[in-house]
Each structure stands twice: as C-alpha cells, then as structure tokens.
Write a structure and sequence with these properties.
Chain A has about 280 residues and is an all-alpha fold. Chain A is built from 12 helices and no strands. Helices cover about 75% and strands about 0% of the residues of chain A. Chain B is α/β, with parallel strands linked by helices and about 250 residues long. The chains are: A mainly alpha (about 280), B alpha/beta (about 250), C alpha/beta (about 300).
Chain lengths: ~280, ~250, ~300
C-alpha cells in the first residue's frame, strides 16, 4: 500500500506544482524578462518581446504575474501558519482545560465561527488600511476558527482515551501531556488543516486585492485582476491581461487542494495498514 | 495503609433534571500492606469508579481517603502531587494504555523523569533493564511501538511502568479481562511474585470469581454502589466450582 | 456428507523477511449440526481462520489449500451466495458491529429482506418481531431502539437474530462473550445453543468453560491444531503438553502460568516446538528423543481424538 500511495497521481502532480511555484517565486528576478515596474508601449498585444503583452501604463504582464507569485505564496504561507497556530492553541484550550478557561475558549471559537468571513475581512482590511502585513493579520485573525473546531473535536476524543488517563494516574502534569502526547497525535490533522487553510488564504488574498484592498506598492495576482477590471481589460476583452493571473490563482489553489487530498489518502491508507496488524 | 471513609460519587443525569445516579454510595474500605483485596461486582456496580477515586483520577462527591493516616487532597483532579506517587493503577486494556505515537522506551522513562527518580537517560535505562527482567520481558521490546506488541506483553509493561515509581499500593482494574487464559495466568503470577518480593498492597478488581478465589485474601462484593458482602473468598463465594463443565450442565438441564 | 471441509489450509501474510503463517496445514471437517469449539491464546490464528472462511481476510493475506462447502469447492462466487444466508457470523465486538444511525428493527429487517426476497411490509415486520423474541428480547421495545440504547449483551442478541434471519447451516461465533458479565455470558451462551436448531456451530473462544458446551474442541497454537477431542476427554486427560498448560492456566485449575510458548523462537527448531519443555521427553528412549527433536510431529490418532505429538 505505501508504494502505491507514494506514486499516487495526486502526490506527483501536487509535488511538481509546488516545486514549480516555489522556484518561480524564489527566482523571480532571474526568470522574469523585465522588472514589473518597467514601462513600455501601453496596450500592446502578446509578441515575441512581451509574451503576454503590456497593460494600460505599459508594464509587462508576464513580469507582473511572475512577481505576483511571490506575494501570493508569502501571504498564503504566513497567514496559514499563523492561523493554524492560533487555531490549534484555541482548540486545545477549548477541549483540554476545565472550568472557566474552557468556556472562554469555547465561546471564542463559537463566536468566531458565527461571523461571516468575507464581509468582516473586507471591513477590517479597509479599516487597517492597505499593506501586506495587514492582509496577513486580517486573514489569520479570521481564518483560525475552522482549525480550532477540528482540533477541539479531536482533542475531546483523545482525552477520553485510556492512555491519557493512565498518564494522569502516573502523575504526569497537564502541560506535559498536552505537549508530548496530545500534540503528536494531532500531527496529521494539523498538517491537513494547514494545507486547506493555505488554499483558502490564497483565495482570500486574491479577493481582497481584487477589491482594491491589497498592497498598492506590490503587485499580486488579485491586484492585476483589479487593474484589469478597472482599466478596461475586461470591457475590451484583453484576455492576456486577466486570464494569466486568474489561471495562476486557480492553479495554486488546486495545487494545495491536491496536496491535501494526497495526504488524506496516505493517512487513510496507513490507518488501514495499522488495523490489519492486529 | 489505605483507608477510604464513606466515599460517594454521584453523577447528575442531564443538564436540567435533578436526578442523580449514585455510582458509589458510601463505601468504606481499608487495605493493609502486603495483602490482596479483591473487589467484584457486575458492570455498572461502581467498582471502576471507586478505583478511579482511590487513584485520584476523579473527585469524590463526599468522603475521605487516608493514606498512612494522612488525608489525601481530593479538591480538584487530576491531583499531581508527589504524595500520589505511592498509589499506582493499572488498567483493563493494556494496549490502549500507551500513547500510540510514543516509543515504549520513552513511555517507560517519562514517568521516572517526571518524578525525578532518575537524572539521566542512561540511569533510567539501567533501572528499566532490572524491571523488565522482573516482569519477564526482553529489553529489545522497548524499541517497539505499542501496536507492535501483544496484549500480554503490554500488560506486563504497564505493570513495569507502575512499579518503576516504587509504589506501595497497586490498584489493578480488571488486569486480565482483555487477556487470554495463558496471558492471564502469567500476569497474575507476576503480580503475586512482585507482591511477595516488595510487600505492596493490591486492590484487585475483577468480575471473575475463580480468579479472585485463586488470588485474593479478602474480597468485597459491590452491588449498585454499595458493598454488600465482605470476607474471605471461600466465605463470600461458597465452595469452588470443581470443573469446567458447569455451563454445559446448565445447558443440558434446560 | 460433511458441511464444511478444510484441507491443508494455509493462511500467510506478506511480511519481511519471510511470510508469516497465521494458519498452517489445517485439515478438519465439520459435520451437519455439529458443534465445534476452537480454543487457544490470542494470536494463535483462530480469528484469522474465521475471517478466511467468510472471505473477509485483509488484502495482504494469501490462502492456499482447499475449502469445501457441502462437497463443492468454496469459490468466491459460491461464498457470495451463501454468506449471510447459510453461512453466518456473530462478530467479535457486538456494539461496534451495528450501525449506530439505524434502528435495530431496520437492521434486522434489512438482512432478512436480502435473504427472503418475497418478504416485505407487514410480513417482514412480523418475521423481525418473531426473530427478536426468539433471541429473548422484548421485540416491541427493541424494534425501534437504536444500538447505543442497548447493553453489550443485548447487542449481541440482536446480532444473533440477524444471523438467524438467514436460516444458517453454519454459524461462526467469534469470542461471543468477550467483555460480558458472568451472568449475561451464561444466559447468552445458553440462548445461542437453544437457537441452533438447523445449524452447526463453530465457536471461537479462549474460555474453556464455553468450549466445553461443544461436542468437539480443537486446541490451536501458533496456527497449528495441536489436539482435537471431545471436551469430557480432553479436559479430563489432556494428551498434548500445550493443552495441559492451557488447562492449568485456568483459575479453577490453579492459575498456573506457563512461560515457554512464545512464537518466534519456537519456529526455528526443526523438530517438535515443545521438545525443550516436554515432561514426556524424559520418559522416552534416546532414539525416540532424537525423533522428537528432529522431526516435526503431525496430527495422529483416531478421528475422535487427534494429537500433534509422536508419543502422547
């Protein structure tokens, strides 16, 4: 079984795509033919020099797309890491603590789950003002609750298992049980949540940028779409302006979802294997 | 050595209703060093709840627990105090008593480190090798993970883990219920040897009257949270069933 | 004609460096209406055997040898036709073997409708009621109940009702009393025997008292049958050293622990696995001892008492 899943198509595809995306983002200055701020003749269609043409102020669109991957990946990873960390903390707190501490965490999770995601995100982003760190902050402040709910459910399950009781009876303190016994048993869940969150976060970043709430000094895929929308890209049907960034958003989201799918497959396969050893 | 006075545990049923279930309803018992006290009763009679209260895993609704004439704190569980160290417990399902993600070596070293009984891993391994020898296991076993060992081996390891903390009292909750006849005999023999050597007291919980007859010096019978009978196994259970055919005889008579 | 015949059955699992044999060289036949018990330690291969009979082995298992069902080879196709009907199983963990989201009545009716295609509506319902009361349950209450409302003993009776719904000719019960109270255990076992009117029973257990309710007891160790006999004779005068150890480990017989039957080390010996610990060996002549140490014994004896030992 492990051999089969190691070469599962999902695993191979997502791995290649992730490696490809990271290379493009890391080596953008070397890959890109021009700097994203360089100006050429505006509204030129795709040619040998400008593969994807230029926009209304004459910037090369291919260069913008390549540099845009940096922003999307950075925001995606940073916001996913922070929101999963927040979610794990809140989830463990809401499940393992007793008394009022638990009620505080549970109340927080339930309230956060009730709030509609997109409107509040737009509101917060507009209030805090544009900027990369603000976007990361806004997304992670709002994206932690689904992780928290899953972690909470799993910890509630785990803490009823006999081995936790036997560790308590051996006199192990609570922090030690959480750190050395609960956390390792959450590993798969946290990883899966991280990947799903990363995909969500990249979409959210694109949405904010498209609404004009992104960082105006840095070009991102959602930002290219924003300009294409407001400066006649869509109305004149300049496909080379709006299609590449849109495709990139779709592709990167797909990559993370495929990776998550692959990990899920592997987790169920190994769970089945361990059952069979009994 | 261990004394429980009028222990009670009530569970409230439902959020709004005031109906309570009396899992343990005023149980007093005492256990002296070196003796095996048997505790039996049907499932739901509260014997496991009683054991968990004595081990400090759940909080009694009322009553006191004295250990060597000093009252143990029962305010809020889990009671992480060095004073609980002499009281160790082993559980019904040994395979679930270990963290599935932890190597067994680590699982056995961890309590020793927590209670600062050892200062280094090497010292701990030294100590463990002696313990493993006492429970009849090979040292290689420690390199495995819980799903790679059998139930009998796992139960010996839980015994070794409990003994590593040098308890004076062992609470064994159905230690052999999940094991087959042979492993059961081995685990019980092991507990006896250890008791003879170290003189620890043992509270043995089991629903198997034959097992208690063979192992316990005194038995208590629990029904609906109360102790209804106490005495030597012979006095409580009557004469032993002499053979293995009692079930078959019942079948042919009905 | 026998109901079920196994010939040279081997079940192995792919393991590195060499395959692990869970069942080896098993030849046995179950007669119509017979009651057979398999006893042995956990890990001796008794549950794997049941899984093999039902064709529900894990995918990395290899089966060789032949299984005959009433004289015809048991092909996957035949198995699909008889499973749940003529061949029924009471699984090991009763509470987990029922679907928690469906009512008991539905689950009993479901299998009943499968086996009797012409039954539906009121007729089906009557039949379910009859089955539930046959296994000693209050049919009115249990019909609409959900599995979490049942105790372990009741869940097991429901599974028995489901098995009986297919009017089986062979019922395999895998550790039917595990985790039950003594009183419930006795009641359920008596009930099981009473319900077996048209069916043979294959009882898998490590409970010696339970095994004594059958006509024939097979003792298994490390995938091999070491002794087969009627319980009266087997318990009174066990011939194989392992059977003796198993019997004396029972609390009623003194709870004596035998420590020498661990699997891996025994496998490497060429001769009898028990030679190093056999009391019988001391009474034998040197040539006989050599045979014990060099040649693995096979099952021998008459059909009503077979033992895997050269001299017992």
């Amino acid at each position: 079984m492990p051999i089969l899943s190691r070469y599962s198509p999902w695993g191979v595809i997502s791995c290649l795509l992730i490696v490809g995306l990271s290379i493009i983002a890391l080596f953008a200055p070397f890959i890109s033919p021009f700097s994203p701020g360089e100006r050429f003749f505006p509204f030129s269609p795709p040619s040998a020099v400008h593969w994807l043409g230029t926009d209304d102020i004459g910037q090369d669109i291919l260069a913008q797309v390549i540099y845009g991957s940096q922003i999307s990946l950075t925001v995606g990873l940073a916001a996913a890491v922070s929101s999963v960390c927040l979610g794990t903390l809140a989830g463990i707190g809401g499940a393992y603590l007793r008394g009022w501490g638990r009620e505080v965490f549970r109340g927080m999770i339930d309230t956060a789950l009730l709030i509609p995601f997109l409107p509040l995100m737009v509101l917060l982003a507009a209030y805090l003002g544009p900027g990369l760190s603000n976007i990361v902050l806004v997304i992670s402040l709002l994206g932690w609750c689904s992780t928290a709910r899953s972690v909470q459910a799993r910890v509630l399950q785990l803490r009823e298992l006999p081995f936790i009781e036997s560790l308590v009876s051996l006199g192990l303190p609570g922090y030690r049980i959480i750190y050395a016994h609960i956390l390792p048993n959450l590993r798969e869940l946290i990883l899966a949540k991280f990947i799903v969150t990363a995909a969500h976060v990249m979409l959210a970043e694109a949405a904010l940028s498209f609404l004009g709430l992104g960082d105006p000094t840095r070009v991102s895929w959602g930002g290219i779409l924003y300009y294409a929308f407001h400066r006649g890209g869509f109305s004149n049907d300049l496909w080379y302006w709006y299609l590449p960034p849109g495709g990139c958003i779709a592709l990167s989201t797909f990559t993370f979802v495929a990776w998550g799918y692959y990990l899920e497959q592997r987790a169920t396969a190994s769970a089945a294997d361990s059952l069979m050893e009994d | 050595m261990l004394e429980a006075i009028a222990l009670q545990k009530h569970f409230r049923q439902g959020f709004f209703s005031q109906r309570t279930v009396r899992a343990v309803d005023g149980v007093s018992l005492c256990l002296t060093a070196g003796e095996t006290l048997g505790l039996t009763g049907n499932s739901g009679s509260g014997k496991s709840t009683l054991a968990r209260m004595l081990a400090g895993l759940i909080k009694p609704s009322a009553g006191r627990i004295l250990y060597q004439d000093v009252e143990l704190p029962t305010s809020s569980p889990p009671f992480f105090t060095p004073r609980r160290r002499p009281l160790q417990m082993i559980f019904q399902n040994p395979l679930l008593a270990f963290d599935p993600r932890q190597q067994l070596r680590q699982a056995l070293l961890e309590p020793l480190l927590t209670h600062r009984l050892i200062s280094s891993t090497a010292q701990g391994l030294d100590r463990l090798s002696g313990l493993l020898h006492a429970v009849g296991l090979e040292e290689e076993l420690l390199l495995r993970y819980p799903h790679q060992i059998s139930g009998g081996q796992a139960q010996r390891l839980t015994i070794a883990r409990a003994l590593s903390l040098e308890p004076e009292l062992l609470i064994a909750d159905e230690p052999a219920a999940m094991l087959d006849v042979v492993a059961q005999a081995q685990v019980m023999a092991l507990l006896h040897q250890l008791q003879n050597r170290t003189g620890i007291g043992m509270l043995l919980i089991s629903h198997d009257t034959e097992l208690l007859r063979a192992s316990a010096s005194r038995v208590l019978v629990m029904v609906n949270g109360q102790i209804t009978a106490a005495g030597t196994p012979a006095a409580v259970f009557g004469p032993p069933a002499t053979d293995l055919f009692s079930l078959r005889r019942q079948l042919t008579t009905t | 004609m026998d109901l079920l015949t196994l010939k040279d059955l081997n079940i192995s699992f792919m393991k590195t460096p060499e395959p692990f044999f869970a069942v080896r060289q098993l030849t046995v036949s179950l007669a119509l209406l017979s009651r057979t018990a398999i006893i042995g330690e956990s890990g001796c291969g008794k549950s794997i055997l049941a899984a093999a009979l039902l064709g529900i082995l894990p995918h990395n298992a290899t089966v060789s040898g032949s299984i005959f069902w009433q004289g015809t080879p048991l092909t996957p196709d035949l198995l699909r036709r008889i499973r749940g009907r003529e061949l029924a199983l009471i699984p090991q963990n009763p509470a987990a073997s029922l679907n928690p989201t469906l009512s008991v009545g539905f689950q009993v009716a479901e299998t009943l409708a499968l086996t009797h295609a012409n039954r539906h509506g009121g007729k089906l319902r009557d039949q379910v009621f009859q089955l539930l009361s046959q296994v000693g349950l209050d049919a009115k209450v249990v019909y609409t109940a959900y599995p979490h409302q049942l105790s372990g003993g009741m869940a097991q009776r429901v599974l028995l009702a489901i098995a009986l719904g297919g009017s089986p000719r062979l019922l395999i019960a895998d550790e039917p009393t595990k985790g039950l109270d003594p009183a419930v255990r006795t009641d359920n076992m008596l009930l099981l025997h009473q319900c077996l009117v048209t069916s043979a029973l294959l009882l898998i257990t490590h409970d010696l008292e339970l095994a004594a309710t059958c006509e024939q007891v097979m003792v298994m160790h490390a995938g091999e049958v070491v002794e087969i006999a009627a319980p009266e004779r087997l318990y009174a005068k066990p011939r194989h050293i392992y059977t003796r150890a198993l019997l004396s480990a029972h609390p009623a017989n003194g709870l004596l622990a035998a420590t020498f039957f661990c699997g891996a080390a025994l496998d490497q010996q060429p001769g009898c696995k028990f030679a190093a610990h056999c009391q019988l060996l001391a009474t034998l002549s040197p040539t006989q001892r050599r045979q014990c140490r060099q040649q693995a014994p096979t099952l021998r004896g008459s059909s009503d008492w077979q033992v895997r030992c050269h001299y017992a």
